[in-house]
Amino acid sequence: MLKQFAGIYEKLKRADQNIRNLDRELRLFIKRGRYSVVPENKREITLKAIHYHKKRRIPPRFPVLAGEIIHHLRSCLDHIAWHFSLRSYRKDPAKSKSIMFPICDKEPVDKNGVSCFDGKVKGIAKAKARKLILKFQPYKTPDPTDDLLSILHHFDIVDKHRELVVCLSSGARKLPAKDEPLIESYKRAHPELTPAQIAFKFKGYGKLVPQVSFRDFGRRPIQPVIPGLIELRDNVARVIAEFAKLL
User: How does pLDDT run across 109-139, given as a tens digit for each residue?
Assistant: First the structure.
């Protein structure tokens, strides 16, 4: 762990701890309800189980906990911008308020957009750091809406103003550990499929379990909460690692 990024790594570590804690709570929530495993031997019972879980109320605690994780991850990026900003810039009350890691779905081209973007990174004198910030902008990807930094930024904004939207999806396939790479590979190859569709594809490979999910996770209409948060955490860790090379 690099001393200069100690606070950032602690935030990442805390986010990881919170993901594990939330995972335990979600598992307990599913376990305490009916149909902790969705039966698939009879269509009538399967539909009954799916209907039960779709109607089940999600405790408001879960979106709050997910929001805290989102905020820790987003804050890691802003701390990077702060670290690379000049000390004189950080000490100026008027300027320091604008220091943050910009995340843009669209390239700033008009006067206001360029001014807003530049204001956030103006204090960063290190050219390589500014170049990396540009490299990670969602607008540089084939699909900015589905970029993980864009999803993180959007969720953080939503959580500041209203509750994150989570729901109970119909289910996801839980495979034995030896078969997990198979389903993960299929998920990456077919991002357009929902967890329920993937679960149906792998029917017979493992148990069908209910999943508490995010709605509108980029292009995905439904994304199980824990795998989604892990994706966001891993991506932030990758960004941090790139900036750590500049220290």
Answer: 998 889 999 999 999 989 999 999 999 999 9
